[in-house]
Amino acid sequence: MTRVNPVRRLRSVRAGPDPGSEPADVLARVGTGDSTAFDQFYDLTIALTYGIVVKVMRDPAMAEEVVQEVYVEIWRLAPRYDPAKGSARSWAATIAHRRAVDRVRSEEARRVREEKVERQSIAPYDTVAEEVSDRLERGRVTRALDTLSESQREAVTLAYFGGHTYREVAALLELPEGTVKTRIRDGLIKLRDAFGVTP
User: Is 91 exposed, middle or buried (0-12, 13-18, 19+ CB in 10 A)?
Assistant: First the structure.
């Protein structure tokens, strides 16, 4: 796939794609191997995916690389898309967020490995204990997020892991702000219950 500057593509689609093109229908065609539909789906979702990735990564150059990976994954996974589990745009947003988070974690792990090699010493007990504790806590958070509905998890992830405001989440998901606030509130209540926190 040729490398395309997402910012340039963003400018080119400001006028918007063909209004008769529903993302789910376009994605269904992508799933059959239709490369024209893939280009159309790219135009329909690039503003959303690039916005999510750059927000997570804070590095536009690296974000462009990750966006390319996102669309390779969308092309590969399109046949598995199930509209019953969420909109095509939210599906693409989830892939973008996961890819960005994976890259951030990968870069952090690489940095940590390099620092360890430089020090060439055994980490003190407290550091090891802290790392184990962090991993256990991340596991608890992941399991707690799995208890949410797809719509709640999507809204909570964009707000708290993506760093978006209610208004930005509403715009990204193309939903009313009230709906987004309700999903986030209900999701947080479920998370609180999953962690056993009393109000």
Answer: buried
